[in-house]
Amino acid sequence: DTEVTQTPKHLVMGMTNKKSLKCEQHMGHRAMYWYKQKAKKPPELMFVYSYEKLSINESVPSRFSPECPNSSLLNLHLHALQPEDSALYLCASSQDRGPTNEKLFFGSGTQLSVL
Amino acid sequence: TQLLEQSPQFLSIQEGENLTVYCNSSSVFSSLQWYRQEPGEGPVLLVTVVTGGEVKKLKRLTFQFGDARKDSSLHITAAQPGDTGLYLCAGGPYSGAGSYQLTFGKGTKLSVIP
Prior knowledge:
Radius of gyration of chain A: 14 Å
Number of helices of chain B: 0
Shape of chain B: globular
Helix content of chain B: under 10%
Oligomer: heterodimer
Radius of gyration of chain B: 14 Å
Mean pLDDT of chain A: 93
Largest sheet of chain A: 7 strands, mixed
Low-confidence stretches of chain B: none
């Protein structure tokens, strides 16, 4: 199993809603990531979890709240989002292969629209 | 943050033509990666280059890492419509705790016309 599974694939939410994005992998990877990708732009790193601990938070607004319940699951809780938060949210995972052997596996993403 | 500049941003070519995409930085990278992304999907890793001057081939795709490890190129020979997609270079530091802080270039959107 070399897949990173993200649900839902599409999500439409209002600015007052609370929703969660889910990500799952069963490759035994101990690092998991959230990236945000706006249309026609490259992915931008949001959060990194390493061994289930938050190791990197790229100055993301608090309306985005990550959670790593266990080594296979990663959630992104959304609350009071703005229309400009509409984007493709990508989850990725990686195995610790040392400093020059990185390989990230990406999910297909959740296409989020905030109305 | 180590910045990566990609060029060209857009490329539209006829089937059978050759093309080269460039990824440049003022920073030295321990390694650089190339990903390909199709609409509505996540990026998929094509190759990682590690050693300065290294050349790697993946069928019709040839990847090169600059001698100074600040730049890389992707050359496609005899492009096919199936090569259409967004090509992204990426690099960044290893955190030392099992994770990687990858930054992506802005990407090259390639369209191969039959």
